[in-house]
Amino acid sequence: GQNIDQPTEMTATEGAIVQINCTYQTSGFNGLFWYQQHAGEAPTFLSYNVLDGLEEKGRFSSFLSRSKGYSYLLLKELQMKDSASYLCAVRIITGGGNKLTFGTGTQLKVEL
Amino acid sequence: NAGVTQTPKFRVLKTGQSMTLLCAQDMNHEYMYWYRQDPGMGLRLIHYSVGEGTTAKGEVPDGYNVSRLKKQNFLLGLESAAPSQTSVYFCASSYSTFRMPQREQYFGPGTRLTVT
Question: How far is CA A73 from CA A43, A82, B14, B93, in A?
Answer without folding.
Answer: 15, 13, 42, 23
